[in-house]
Task: structure prediction
Amino acid sequence: MLESSNKIIQISKYQDLSETLKGIITKHGMDIADDYSNLHSIDMIKKGIGQTGNTSFMRSELVRFIRETGFPFLFIMDYKIDTGVGKQLDPDGMKLLRTLLISCIILARGAGFEKLRGNFLLLAEKNDLARARQIESDPLRILKILSTSDKIVNSFINELKSNSYHFNQLFYIRAMSTESSVNDIHVVMDTMIKAIYARKHLKRLKETKASINTGDYEAAKVLYRLDDKKVYIDGEIKTVKSGSMNQLESNQFYVMGHWVNKTLIETADKVIIAVRKGLGTEKVFAGDDAIIINLTDKCIVDSTLTPSLIQILTKDLGSFSNITINITESNNAVLSQAKGYNLLKKSLHLIREHQ
Result:
C-alpha cells in the first residue's frame, strides 16, 4: 500500500512567501515537489487548461506523483488563483482548489489510495482571509463549493457532507495570511506539521487499538547505552558489537516495545529499578543527575501511560529531580488524550519522529 511522502506541493504566486515556506520546509526534512510542473507551476497549469479546456491533467499528474513518490504530505496553495479562463468559467478564482479537493475525494476511494490525506494550507489575501478562516473553523463548509457534472462524484461529495467523521479523516485545512510575518509563518508551519504527524499516528493507533488491547505482548525493554560496546538491557550489562548501538545516544534510557495497558506495571518497574538501583556496577544515579528517558516510535504507547508516568515522576522516582522524557510528536499526541496530561507536559521534550 502506498504511504505518505516528505514532499509538499506548493502552488503560489507569492515568491517571497514561497521562499520563506521552502526554508521552513527544508528545516523539517521535507522538500517542495518541483519536478511536477502541472502541479506547482501556475504558468504551466494555465497552459494546460488553455489546451484541454479543463483541469483533468492535474489529476493525472497527481496520480503519477503519488505512484512515483507517495502521497503529498501537504498542499500549500493560494486560496484564489487566476487560471486565465475568465470570470464566466472561474467566477471565484477557486477552480484549482476545487480540482485538488475533488481529486482527493475520488482517489481516496481507490484501492491502494486509502491512506491519502488532503492536508491543505490556504494562503489568503487580506480581502479573502475572513472567508478562508471560516473554512479553517468549519472545514465542512468547503464542500459547498464542490459540484461536478458526474453523478458518481457528486454522490461521493454528498456522502462527506453527511459524514463529518469521514470528512475530517480525509481533510485537514488551515489558512494563513499572505501578509504574515516570518515569525507567524514559522508558528503556523510548525504547528501544522506537528498536527499532521499527530493525526497520522492517531489514525494508526485507532486501526491497531483492538490488537493492542487484546494482544499478548511482552513488556517493553529498557536499554541504556553505556559506551560503544556496553549496553544495559533489562537489568543486565551486555557486550555488543562495536557500533551496533550507534542509533542510541549514550548515557540515555530507551524504552522499546509495548508500553501499553497490559504491560504498564511490568515496564514501569523496569524503569524504576534501573534508576533507583543503578546499572549494575557501571553507573549509579544521584538525585540531581540528568536522567533522560526516550520514548521514540519504537515504543508503542497508549493513553494509560500518562497517569503511570505522572506516578513514576512524582512518587516512585520523586527523589530524582532532573528527569526528562524525550518523546516523538506522534507518541505525545497519544499521551495528550488522557486526563492529567498537563501535569506531565513540563517533563516532556519533543523530538523528531524519525529519531
Q: What stands out?
A: The two ends are 24 Å apart (CA to CA). Residues 7-210 form a domain with the Rossmann fold fold (CATH 3.40.50.2300).
